[in-house]
Amino acid sequence: MAGQWLPPGELTLSGRPVLRPGEVECFLLSAVDIEPDIETHPSLTTYKAGILTLTTHRLIWISSATANDAVFVPLSLVTHIFTPKKSLKAMFASPRIRFELSLSDSGRVDPDKPRHGARSVVVTLVMRGKSDNHELFYTKLWEAWRAHAWENSDPGTSGSEAASSVAIRVPVVGVAGILRKEQEMWESTDKSLQDAFQDLNALMSKAKEMVMLAEKMRQKLLAGPNSHTSTGGDEEMGSKEEMQDWLLSVGIISPVTKESAGALYHQQLSRQLADFVKIPLERAGGMINLIDIYCLFNRARGTELISPDDLLQACTLWEKLDVPVMMRKFDSGVMVVQSKSHRDEEVFGRIKSLVLKPEALRNGISPSDAAMTLGIAPAMAKEHLLAAESRGLLCRDISPDGFRFFVNLFPEITLDDIYLVKDDGIYATWVAAVTS
């Protein structure tokens, strides 16, 4: 694309930005334009009407018109942020934030290099949305830029103090002695507090490293092959499931909140939820109960809990968003989340092979039997059995012991001679199983 001067950003399948290790979302705004100074740099293009995400490391712009189109501005290359001008004209115009951005010799933004200093451009963020959080966004931008979180500078103050000199103990005599003893006590307390905070900082840094490691392993699991052809495939599958359980307990690094997303809260929550349910859906065979998703998602969000209404609204928005998952409601009213690649025909085929077994032909199958075969919860297995019944594959028998499902033999019966016993087909298999 001509005039493409900002580096492309990476997005998830649901259109959320892929964050770097240690990067956290701070604020979101809709309908934001990125306008370079055309007078000094006429070759640079303007990015129109996109969602702007402020993180601790970058400004990420995602196009609202084109799918999978995103660019970003590294905060490390921002050399100056201008104070917004307050005037009568500014009150009736779209809010604007201006900052100076360092460019490479080719006139582009190179995130892999430090501030170049040779060339720069003044960039204007034009906020055309109806949000009233523009001043708060400027404050968050200033704080993120001043924090320099991208440097990850852990100076590693090992507490190498000056050589511990031998202190001469002076006897406590008079008021001076009492003051000296009080001073020594305060110094000892201060040193204990410093040591405690050093241990706490070390623990926090280690925890941060563990979260970063978990995120890398999660990405590797998502990108890994689904088929295991080696001799140790079962062991690999078991270790993968164990790793997925552990990663689900780690949680979401940067959960979407109402404070950071504002008017985009439910839309961004819907996209983040679509990314989150990928691993649980793989473990559940492509379909999982909405209640289970609510529990897993809230556990991963930690203290940033969401309400059932927020979850339902986020799932409803999947119809408008291009995401690989969807919400489905069975005739019984049970709501589930399933991947769009999930096909009921595959489940029906496994159920049909189950009901054609000799024991099932005689006694039928229960939802618990189907749950063991499909590897899902009995409640979900019952919904699949009822769906198979509506397709004409099964017949249901209701007794005091509960539901029992049998293979549907009515299509095998000839209406002209209902007593005719065929020598082949499912009917003959059933007769052989019952009479044996």
From TrEMBL:
Kindly list the biological process annotations in GO that this record carries.
protein transport to vacuole involved in ubiquitin-dependent protein catabolic process via the multivesicular body sorting pathway
Pfam families this protein is in? EAP30, Vps36_ESCRT-II
Q: To which protein family does this belong?
A: Belongs to the VPS36 family.
- Give one GO term, molecular function aspect: phosphatidylinositol-3-phosphate binding
Q: What does this protein do?
A: Component of the ESCRT-II complex (endosomal sorting complex required for transport II), which is required for multivesicular body (MVB) formation and sorting of endosomal cargo proteins into MVBs.
| Record's protein name | Vacuolar protein-sorting-associated protein 36
User: Which terms are listed as keywords in the entry?
Assistant: Coiled coil, Cytoplasm, Endosome, Protein transport, Transport
Instruction: Offer a single GO CC term for the protein.
Output: late endosome membrane
- Taxonomically, what lineage is the organism? Eukaryota, Viridiplantae, Streptophyta, Embryophyta, Tracheophyta
Q: Sorted alphabetically, which PROSITE patterns does this protein's record hold? A: GLUE
Domain of life, per lineage: Eukaryota
Q: What organism is the protein native to? A: Carnegiea gigantea
**Has keyword Transport?**
yes
- Where found? Cytoplasm; Endosome
Indicate the quaternary assembly: Component of the endosomal sorting complex required for transport II (ESCRT-II).
The UniProt record lists the GLUE N-terminal domain at 9-157
